[in-house]
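pls design
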């Protein structure tokens, strides 16, 4: 009660958050912006678009400062919150506070997730009708003294978030760190809140696409396409046809008919511009114009192909495999929502093909590791994915980003795939692998024994690439011994401090050589040194103890967008730099192997979203990458636990 009174007092005395008007529906704005007006917000603050593609630490800090300035201005310009509570009392409704951004250093690209929310669940009629009937909606950032008093500060509280507040100003439900953008999932969470207060929610509007949506939920996209085409021909209602067109584009996209999906979305947007379904279709008709919409599982999860509550016979691994099979594109690749394709006019920008290649290699590796879950479909997926990986025309080296990972992760996959290949294919793959190795060896010489994936030389990249080269050598490829000796020397020099931890940068390791900063990458570095004969099984066990000691800190960074100075940590690649090497290290930790594997399995089982997928690296690399890494981690653990 004291907490509720405190909140009410604060709400009554502070001018709370948000300032910019909702987007106007004028002709100068793209059609998809109408999604921002699908809910009649009591007040809405516009999230500024930084339009940043590639980030470095300096730019990241600049964007953080920019977002904090925006939040403070929103607070100063907003109308008083008691007016919202008065409306709630007058209408006998709850307040639904959508928080698109929380002040702090944790999320520097909040506009991306705001677009997912606004174009996805917060413009879907199943959600908007519920909100209209039972809530007074506001869209406001959170910051300042109120955020601190409520304990809703970064990084413990993370956008995008929904807060449900009663007419007295008490928070009765909070849902933050949202990374499932399925309207049915969001609606179900709000329905749960209403029923907990003995309010029977208004039923969603009747949908002509109900049958097709069920088929999409089952993953039967081809049948859904036929059903929707038949429905379209039989329906005289323009509103219904707009909805049909939106879902037809969605079904076509996952049936791997992307070009036809784009055509249908564009036609729907043009023919029915007054429909919310046309606005939603317009968001997805812009392939290449905005990576936040055009690519990836997050941008496409308006109707997630995975059921939020899978039946008991569907295991965690089976759901993850199914997700990867659905998300593979017709060209054989997997994409991230931000990096899958550059914006229009930047087709030649180096690095995007590298990122797609690295993600595709890891997805292929995960499917190969779990091929028994669906042998026929996995075999087909691998054939398409490997054709892309072997083509050689997608990787840009030199100063381009992530090319070392593109080569290293291809080595990782094909080294494990070689024993299953036909002789002719095996010879072809080995030739390609030796070429990738030559590029990496030359790169290491240019970087004084280390590796980099961006502009700086780091411990985690050096350890990761060295590990992949070791896997290739174990598979019979020719890798010079000097590669491992030089990498080991660089890693050893980065190790220090009272805990013997590894810094982030090889050239300035002392900067982040603390438990907070280094506990996640400690198993990776120690395990890499173990592979080249410089560490023991007991050393790996000790590294895992460091990992577990600091785990809570760096797991909090998993859904963030960039470095977190407040935590002395990075969001990095939570799985590849932290969890996956810990799982591999556990296998080699001697008498402690099973106990370590069980602890790690428990951690991973707590990570998937309600749709059965995993998220990592601040959304930039998407759920395909992180779900693949979860599968590889689980396979490494199963190798220990099933013995």
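designed seq:
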């Amino acid at each position: 009660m004291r907490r509720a009174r405190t909140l009410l007092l604060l709400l009554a005395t502070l001018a709370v958050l948000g300032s910019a008007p909702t987007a106007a529906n004028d002709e100068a704005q793209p059609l998809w912006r109408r999604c921002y007006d699908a809910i009649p917000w009591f007040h809405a603050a516009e999230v500024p678009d930084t339009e940043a593609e590639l980030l470095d630490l300096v730019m990241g800090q600049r964007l953080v400062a920019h977002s904090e300035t925006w939040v403070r201005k929103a607070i100063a310009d907003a109308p008083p919150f008691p007016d919202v509570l008065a409306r709630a009392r007058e209408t006998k409704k709850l307040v639904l506070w959508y928080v698109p951004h929380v002040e702090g250093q944790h999320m520097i690209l909040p506009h991306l997730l705001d677009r997912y929310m606004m174009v996805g669940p917060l413009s879907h009629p199943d959600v908007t009708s519920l909100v209209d009937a039972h809530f007074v909606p506001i869209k406001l950032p959170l910051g300042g003294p109120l955020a601190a008093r409520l304990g809703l500060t970064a990084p413990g509280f993370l956008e995008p978030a929904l807060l449900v507040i009663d007419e007295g100003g008490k928070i009765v439900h909070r849902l933050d760190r949202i990374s499932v953008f399925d309207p049915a999932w969001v609606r179900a969470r709000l329905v749960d809140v209403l029923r907990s207060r003995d309010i029977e929610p208004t039923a969603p509007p009747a949908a002509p696409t109900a049958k097709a949506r069920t088929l999409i939920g089952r993953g039967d996209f081809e049948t859904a396409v036929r059903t929707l085409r038949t429905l379209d021909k039989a329906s005289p209602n323009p509103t219904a046809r707009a909805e049909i067109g939106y879902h037809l584009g969605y079904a076509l996209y996952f049936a791997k008919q992307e070009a036809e999906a784009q055509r249908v979305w564009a036609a729907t947007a043009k023919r029915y511009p007054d429909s919310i379904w046309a606005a939603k279709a317009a968001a997805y008709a812009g392939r290449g114009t905005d990576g936040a919409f055009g690519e990836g599982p997050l941008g496409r999860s308006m109707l997630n192909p995975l059921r939020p509550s899978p039946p008991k016979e569907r295991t965690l691994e089976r759901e993850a495999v199914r997700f990867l099979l659905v998300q593979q594109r017709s060209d054989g690749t997997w994409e991230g929502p931000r990096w899958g394709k550059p914006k229009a006019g930047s087709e030649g920008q180096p690095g995007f093909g590298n990122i797609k290649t690295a993600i595709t290699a890891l997805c292929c590796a995960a499917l190969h590791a779990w091929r028994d879950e669906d042998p026929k479909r996995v075999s087909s997926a691998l054939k398409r994915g490997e054709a892309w990986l072997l083509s050689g025309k997608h990787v840009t080296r030199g100063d381009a980003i992530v090319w070392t990972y593109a080569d290293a992760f291809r080595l990782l996959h094909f080294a494990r795939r070689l024993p299953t290949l036909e002789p002719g294919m095996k010879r072809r793959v080995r030739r390609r692998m030796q070429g990738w190795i030559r590029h990496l060896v030359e790169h290491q010489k240019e970087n004084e024994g280390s590796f980099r994936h961006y502009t700086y030389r780091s411990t985690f990249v050096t350890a990761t690439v060295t590990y992949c080269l070791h896997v290739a050598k174990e598979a019979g490829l020719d890798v010079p011994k000097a590669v491992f000796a030089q990498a080991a020397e660089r890693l050893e020099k980065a190790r220090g401090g009272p805990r013997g931890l590894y810094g982030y940068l090889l050239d300035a390791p002392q900067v982040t050589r603390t438990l907070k900063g280094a506990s996640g990458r400690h198993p990776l570095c120690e395990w890499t040194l173990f592979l080249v004969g410089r560490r023991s099984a007991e050393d790996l066990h000790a590294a895992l103890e460091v990992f577990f000691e600091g785990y809570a800190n760096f797991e909090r960074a998993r859904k963030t967008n960039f470095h977190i100075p407040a935590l002395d940590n990075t969001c990095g690649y939570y799985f590849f730099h932290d969890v996956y090497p810990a799982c591999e290290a556990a296998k080699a930790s001697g008498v402690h192997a099973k106990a370590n594997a069980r602890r790690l399995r428990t951690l991973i089982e707590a990570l998937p979203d309600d749709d059965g997928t995993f998220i990592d690296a601040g959304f930039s690399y998407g759920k395909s990458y992180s779900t693949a890494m979860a599968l590889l981690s689980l396979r490494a653990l199963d190798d220990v636990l099933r013995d």
